[in-house]
Write the structure tokens for this entry.
Amino acid sequence: MYSPYELIWLFFLLLYFFFDIILFFAIDNIDTRNNTNVFHRPLSVIIAAKNEAQNLTANLPFILNQNYPQFEVIVVNDQSQDETVKVLDGFKKHNPFLKYFNVDKDLKSSKKKALDFGIQQAKYEHLILTDADCKPQSVMWLNHLQNSFSTQHQLVIGFSPYQKQASYINSIIRFETLQTAINYFGFSQLGMTFMGVGRNLAYTKSLYKKLKGFTSHNNLLSGDDDLLVNQAAKTSHIALCIHPDSFVESLPKTNIKAWISQKRRHITTATYYQLKHQFWLGLQYLSKVLFWFLVIPLTLYLEIQNNFQFNFLGFVLLLLLIKFAFNYKIYKKFASWDLWVWSYFWELNLICLQFYIFTRNLFSTKSNW
């Protein structure tokens, strides 16, 4: 007979690996082959910019120089105080398909309002959304996203990693971004789409109008991407695009305080997800917490209690090794294989940081973007 401690140990041990197994096979089944579709839909690329002169100078050329026959780029300047307008004027002289609009200074600054205005001005049905601090990793970025559209799929989720730099905060940011992507790509493949990221997202203007834009969550600072996707998933089919040439790299925060501030704003939308999504994501996080802070100590306790007659520790290490080997394929698929070697170290660090962020948000919320 198993003791109560052994049953608790086994249950939470298997729960921890359960999520990794199902997400591994889900992502492994996502097709990353190059779509050879020769049909090119005209596209409208939408960017909301607030004090982004430096980022637009660095990244806009990679968007304007896409190898794509027919597209426009719309930048909505949301009351910038820097030289954003001057930068856009300079680009517009040589790129007639670039348009920019200024948000009335009498209106409240809001990324959602800026995006909504840009979408209303878009000439084409198929929209590509990204941010000013983002750089496509290939001139074929637009090709891959538009190839994922179909009569059934009116929304396409892409991947946006952060630029690699040599620092602790950069590694933890990139690891968190990867884990989030594994979740939203994996769960979406399983039929439970709950989010996407606005740095690399595409949908039709018809779908946006059908959802009434951001109306249902206009009062929230965030949600222009994840809540829109969450809402769209109730009635629409979602396409997933993780070909390496479809990635859009973004600039990460360079200090932990700025990153925590960003994440505090992002997670304010989680309580607006569908209940089933909240349940599974909450259970997944709980399984990680319990593994590191209950299962691991309990493993050592059981070893001692059983006089080392059953190798509890060896069994845990075997499972961790199997997961480690499986994960290499997933990390490589997202071009993040360098995080793989220290993945357990980053996971434990991230669990602690997320707990801190969640508790901070219980007492105060972010109020500006």
